[in-house]
Fold this protein.
Amino acid sequence: MLEEGQKAPAFKLPADGGGEIGLAGLKGKIAIVYFYPKDDTPGCTSEAIAFSALKKQFDKAGAVLVGVSRDSVQRHDNFKKKHDLKICLASDEEGKMVADYGVWVKKLNYGREYMGIERSTFLIDAKGVIRKIWRKVKVNGHAEKVLEAVKEMQAAG
């Protein structure tokens, strides 16, 4: 299980729009990597819209937002277009990154057990160190809490 103060596991994933995103390419920037279960579901849509609404403020604070799920790049492209999302969405279809970050967990829904992504967010500093982890995220107000943490990190130097 990853903890604050540890180096973030490296990753390199295909992203929406045919691009690619990786931790190495984010060096020198603050990265917010948030994991969500599935494109175009109510909670995941609300979370993506909330992060998109604050994107200019995250940009101003020098932070890059990356949403990660196991959906395909094509699904990400459709999701972004449908909801006019402004953030980068990365596709972890093979599940390596969700495993490396410890967010691929056993879930329980109406008495049925299954494996899925635990909604989680990682705040990674410019040197690739995890500064804050939010697990079992509740969507309402979460994007604002993350932005506040980025601003506090910046103020602390």
In short: The chain has a mean pLDDT of 95. Helices lie at 42-53, 55-60, 73-83, 96-100, 142-156. Residues 142-156 form the longest helix (15 residues).
